[in-house]
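check this:
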Amino acid sequence: MDSITQAVLGASVQGALLGRWQGRKALLYGAALGTLPDLDVVIDYGDAVADMTYHRGFSHSLLVTAAASVLLAWLVRRYRPHPGYSAMRLWLCIWLVLTTHILLDAFTTYGTQLFWPLSTPPVAISSIFIIDPLYTIPLLLAALGGLLFGLHRTGWLRAQSVALLLSSLYLGSTLIGQQMAGQRLEQALAARGIEAESTFVAATPFNTVLWRVMAVDGDDYYEGLVSWFDQRPMELERLPRRASEGQQALEQSPQHARLRWFTNDLLRYDLIDGQWVVTDLRLGMPGYHPFRFALAEQDEQGDVQLISSVEQWPMGRPPLEDLLALRDRALSQDRPIAIGRLAGALARAPVSESAD
């Protein structure tokens, strides 16, 4: 999730557990501790693919955070002891602040390596977008109220627990929405006689009313949108994936192998201006996927040369009109979105901002 959400989540957790003794400082300590796992973004892992796929690695491991919580609790207890609460309560607070951060991240689409150092694929439940106001607002209001009026007043101390309960209930509701969208996708696939290799369901930006669904079928994939308010069967658009060509061209690329593992093979391949460009289809919205990488160059004779220093392809943010179109589609099935038109941008080289 975004840094603001993780900060106010950590603030509310520590405020609820230690606010009686620490007062406003509990909110500040919790906010700082709640963002600690994301400091791995400052590490340079060597290239753009490594930076993407090693993020949310060791710092988001349940094993590492458990060990870190013990160490941090020991240090605080040794150098800043407080007679009002026990060492066990302090450890529990630190452990919960760190653990709720990484578990919340696992509900997003990116991928969180909860079981590092095991080589199991990242956990990506994909039931909530990385920014969701309905999850964040209760925590934000509780944290701001506690900072302004103090936690020694019973109402604002209790507000931290209430906010955590409301946000947790909302997070649980996202699983229900995801189940609804998954069932609609299965019905649409059955109606068209498609036996998909894999399927994917994720919330669209900033909400859990409209869901993005995808099914992979060899060198093609099918994509569609489904809302809680839909009354008619879902429509799926068939899009090219070019997996056979792309995987053959990139079979010697370690970056490609890493991406396949990290994304569960939900990749699209495009040969653009002589470069094999690989797109992570999980993240973003139709036509706007932030993680794209040129991994190899191919000449006219078909010879492939791997790119040793991989960089992330530039990808502009979706214009406001496309985001508003998502809002309209969420509210009415009579406001369809041309997914094929949006996805067509993936087959073209990006236009630099200086050209605008």
In short: DSSP finds eleven helices and eight strands in the chain. The chain has a mean pLDDT of 94. The longest strand covers residues 210-217. The beta strands are 198-203, 210-217, 220-227, 237-240, 267-272, 275-280, 292-298, 304-306.
